[in-house]
Amino acid sequence: MLTIVVTFTVEAEHLPFVTSELIKLLAPTRQEAGCINYDLHQDLEDPTHFVFYENWESAEHLLAHSKSAHIEAYRVATKGMITDFKLRRMNAVNHE
């Protein structure tokens, strides 16, 4: 399993539009092969700050997701509206 944590900020003047575009990603992504969960979170104190918390069965599934039509449409629609984008690939650390 591969865990992805994406953090980013939306330019304040574009917040309503980008938020609606982000919400459009949820249903189709959750239907993708290999998607375990795909959760979007918005900061309570700074509503321009978002976090995606995702789990994928494999890196190949994540790669397919990154090339999907709905992700490409989102990128085109929100170009220049996102700042401080960081994507982290993570594995669970098990302590026994």
Short recap of the structure:
The chain is an alpha+beta fold. The protein is globular, with a radius of gyration of 14 Å.
Which terms would index this structure?
single chain, 96 residues, four-stranded antiparallel beta sheet, 3 helices
What does this structure look like?
By secondary structure, this protein is of the alpha+beta class. The chain contains three helices and four strands. The protein has helices spanning about 15-30, 60-65, 70-75; strands at about 1-10, 35-40, 50-55, 80-90. The chain starts with a strand and ends in a 6-residue tail after the last strand. The mean pLDDT is about 95.
Number of helices: 3
Which word captures the global form?
Answer: globular
Tell me the strand percentage band. Answer: 35-45%
Mean pLDDT: 96
Q: Gyration radius, to the nearest Å?
A: 14 Å
- Cα(first) to Cα(last) distance is 19 Å
Q: Major beta sheet, specifics?
A: 4 strands, antiparallel
Order of helices and strands: EHEEHHE
Structural class: alpha+beta
Helix-residue proportion:
25-40%
Number of strands: 4
**In which order are the strands of the major sheet placed?**
2-3-1-4
Low-confidence runs: none
Layout of helices and strands:
Blueprint: E1 2-10, H1 15-30, E2 35-42, E3 49-56, H2 59-66, H3 69-77, E4 82-90
Antiparallel strand pairs: 1-3, 1-4, 2-3
